[in-house]
Design brief:
There is one protein chain. It contains seven helices and twelve strands. With 246 residues, the chain is α/β, with parallel strands linked by helices. Strands 1-2-3-4-5 form a five-stranded mixed beta sheet. Helix 1 (3-23) runs antiparallel to helix 2 (29-51), helix 4 crosses helix 7 and helix 5 runs parallel beside helix 6 (187-199). The longest helix has 23 residues, at 29-51. The termini are far apart.
Length: 246
């Protein structure tokens, strides 16, 4: 099984497990999130350890093993991206299975189990054309100051959405055009989405235009920009004009 096929299969199975746990009706919201995370994480971790025993592994729900820093190939997974949305039976949550090679998000899959969709690096779709009025996807609860300011500057409509993976995939699916995040994330929040977005020909970078680098000792990633390539320079230019929020 190729790396991309493995990522897609694992994301799909983890998504089905999460739906089964949620649909059992046995758990309240907070405990449902914990149970879902634990169940999906155990499956993903053990499957990757068996299928790719020589690779590194980083998971949000697993104690970090820094041996991965000496390994070229490291799998970076988020068993449930958007735990709140998962617990609320929304569709905007995701399962991330990504592979970074020499620090670059190279291969992976993002499953949107609530919508029955899996997007993967080896089966890119045609990204729909942008509408006349661009749409910027932002957090449902805490829209980033920079994103709101840039949206106002370019006349873009704000589209509230849940998980990072769902936001990134919205650009591919044609439900949004720009995903600008400046509120801080971790490598597992964006590795698989970035790999999939790059495979679909999208621009992916830090909000100052620098490349996104994965499999680092410090897994914190301050910001992210995913958009069509034709919009990248315009958005980056507007970001440079925005004053940080005091």
């Amino acid at each position: 099984m190729t790396d991309a096929a493995l990522a897609a299969h694992l994301a799909e199975v983890a998504g089905k497990l999460l739906l089964t746990v949620r649909d059992s009706g046995m758990l309240s919201l907070k405990k449902l999130g914990k149970a879902g995370d634990a169940t999906a994480n155990q499956f993903l971790v053990h499957a990757l350890l068996e299928q790719r025993p020589d690779d590194g592994l980083l998971s949000e729900e697993e104690k970090d093993n820094l041996d991965r820093l000496a390994i070229s190939r490291t799998w970076i997974v988020d068993p449930v991206d958007g735990t709140r949305e998962y617990g609320e039976s929304r569709a905007d949550w995701a399962v991330h299975v990504g592979l970074a090679i020499d620090g670059v998000a190279t291969t992976g899959a993002v499953a949107l189990p609530g919508a029955g969709i899996i997007l993967r690096t080896d089966q890119p779709r045609q990204v729909p054309s942008a509408p006349a009025t661009l749409r910027m996807v932002v957090s449902r609860t805490r829209p980033a100051h920079e994103a709101v300011a840039v949206a106002e500057a370019i006349g873009a409509e704000l589209v509230p959405m849940g998980s990072a993976g769902a936001k990134a995939m919205a650009v591919i699916l044609g439900d949004a055009d720009i995903y600008l995040h400046s509120g801080g994330q971790f490598e597992w929040d964006s590795c698989a989405p970035v790999a999939v977005a790059l495979a679909h020909g999208l621009h992916c970078s830090r909000i100052d235009g620098r490349p996104l680098v994965y499999n680092q000792a410090d897994t914190y990633m301050p910001d992210l920009l995913i958009c069509r390539t034709e919009h990248a320079e315009m958005v980056l230019e507007e970001i440079r004009k925005v004053k940080p929020k005091a």
